Amino acid sequence: MHLLENIKEAFRSIKSNLLRTVLTGLIIALGITALVGILTAIDAMKYTLNETFASLGANSFEMKAKGYTNQFRRGGVRGKVYPAITYLQAKQYKRQLGDEAEVGLSAFISGAVEVKANEKKTNPNMSVVAGDENYLRIQNYNLSSGRAFSPAELDNGANVAIVGSEIKDKLFPGLDPVDKYIYLLGRRFQVVGLLEKSGSTMGGGGADRLILIPLETGNQMPRQRALTFDIKTAVSKPENMTFVMGQATGIMRAVRHDVLGQEDSFEVESSDSLSSKLDSLSGNFKLGGGLIAFITLLGASIALMNIMLVSVTERTREIGIRKALGATSVQIRQQFLIEAIVICVLGGLLGIMLGVGIGNSVSLFVGSSSFYVPWLWMSLGLIICVSVGLASGYYPASKAAQLDPIESLRYE
Fold it and tell me: Where does the sequence pass through the membrane (predicted)?
């Protein structure tokens, strides 16, 4: 029998045993859905995060205080907890680094703020950040109207603000919010600038829900605990990145009074290091997804082997007739192997379609804005389907090929 005829025969057999074939195909589809779906979701989210990292500046790095509050070193000993970077330390670092790079200082004030104006109010999910004159440029935020903070406003801690587009839409629909007043955190702020619409970033609203105030203003606001200041340093030339990071580390150690021989009391994170952490994390998720898919496909292969053994038993007389008409053992084995592969491929195609759809739905739910087509994982899914078909169908196919034609013709 030719390959095409074997495939036609496989579909005829599937049609005659439709229910159990469909159930087996669905088990295979579940395994492939788990594999392709998890891998698609991870890759789609990773793609979105990499784009976010790139938009934050490929030639920049951040400095944050190092903490081990929830981590243990080897042997179960709790690691040292270092104090946060203070306002004075951040300003000293910025001044001492000088013209080697551009430094932006910021402090997170609150992430659950309600903003009011003209008897209207926003949802209590607006973020307030205090930043210096370099914050907008280093974060790649652009103004659609208005202006940035003036030197006098930055030095004196004026009650002025730059707001995101969502705040403008809710408080000043159809109007330009510049030079108008908003109320938040018990103070009145004059709006001096409006940020361009950025869209959602991993479900957080991006710059659209941001209220930026001068760094000095944020430092003067009443609070229950000390602010944690973030330092972002941008390098104009990529080739100077390593040199500037080394110089910045030395300056920060001096500013933080780290003793010679003692480990750094702060962390230096660049886009590359964030991507490396993301790769490591996504690798663990992929391993877990692969394990789930393996267990499901193992069950599916056992079910498929059982179905094929039953099929061989039911078609014993048919096998005897084929052999009596001249079919060889190789042709009989090929017929049953192709039937097993066809069942797997049909289930796999359904699983791939479901996996791609579910994976993109999950990534869309957490903030991804594009539809990701995982050609690699789709190809891997098909290869796995063919492999499962071969592994599950080989023993039943060999058993069919070894049947004696005389005994087979006598089978009732």
Answer: 21-42, 287-312, 336-359, 371-395
